[in-house]
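#dry-run=false #mode=assembly
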Amino acid sequence: MSPHGNPEAPASGAAEINREAPKVSPAPEQSAPQEHHDRSAWGLWEVFVRSSRGLSHVHAGSLHAPDAAMALRNARDLYTRRNEGVSIWVVPADAIAASDPDSKGSFFESPQGKDYRHATYYTKSEGVKHL
Amino acid sequence: MSTPDTTTGHGDISTGVAGGDSNASATRITPGNALRPEDIALEVKTGLAKPSEDVAEYALRIGDDALILAQRLGHWISRAPELEEDIALGNIALDQLGHARSFLTYAGGAMLNDDGSAKSEDDLAYFRREHEFRSIQLFEQPNGDFAATIARQFVVSYYQFELYRRLTESTDATLAAIAAKAVKEVDYHRDHSAQWVLRLAGGTDESRKKMIHGLRTRWPYVAELFRDDELTAKLAEAGAAVAPSSLRADFDHLTGEVLNEAELEVPDVPAAPGGGREGRHSEHLGYLLAEMQVLAREHPGASW
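#status=ok
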């Protein structure tokens, strides 16, 4: 259907020490609206499918549709043909705010090495039951 | 239509395509446990399901309707206006093919080959001639443009829904079981076609013009769907089948609601003579069958 997001660029040294607040990257489709417009007048939608009751919706892919009603039907036709789901969500791709791949360092690597944020870091006190 | 080893199950294909925890994957696939044509073939072979001659003829009729429509719709693959719609029409074609396989397999249980074996779905689909097909003429009408195809889908899906809904009550257990599987699928076909009737009618001047034209070209064939004859009268009396005329009121009411919402009128056109149930077809069926049957006839017994 369409590529999902941008492939992560290799983090440069400069990005690692970037002190600016993490940026919010544009949603995938906004980076190439013109190209999309040429192919079709239909907007891009992201599809989330729940495979069975009790599980959460998982991103399955994307599709083009003129509105939500048609997007749901197209999602049904494209992503649940093999009995994959019991529920579908569709979301306009430009309604999704995605984290910026360039902010990987400040966003996602800082928790590394902080063992004390995990319960296993702490030794169990003597005599405590049910831990 | 058949694949090798058709009488055994699919085995376990419940594996996650995306890898990782297959239970959490959005692309976990399962075959489900619905009635399959292979199950009916097994029942026919073992004698568990044996249609009367009348029921077999009836199953052949509605199986032929679905088969011819599947062949017509399959032609849209790679030709639909949008990729998403291409797949939607392909799905509907395959649903119809599934119904055809079930009905024809069952019908074959009362139709014997020269060697005394029951006719298979393939025998019936590939080795009958034009006048031996029992489909109603609407189903063989050429696709036309997208609006004309939607117009045919609109008529067919509302007709089939009413038919299958009632057939689930059939005294013939196999007909009832096939109908119970089919009615859910056809319910979606109704939604699909009604959506498009509304959108094309309410779209641009051009799309509205094409929708009106599409409905006008299909409507002459509507009357034939609801004609009773000796066979349907006898089977309806016995509770095994449905009198086609009894479907008309609901069909008119429900299609009328959609047309009304789309601000379209029921086309005022004379009815075509019909005769598909007796093997009289329009000039289009022969070409369709030539394409559908050529491979099986050139290479009898071939599998692919």
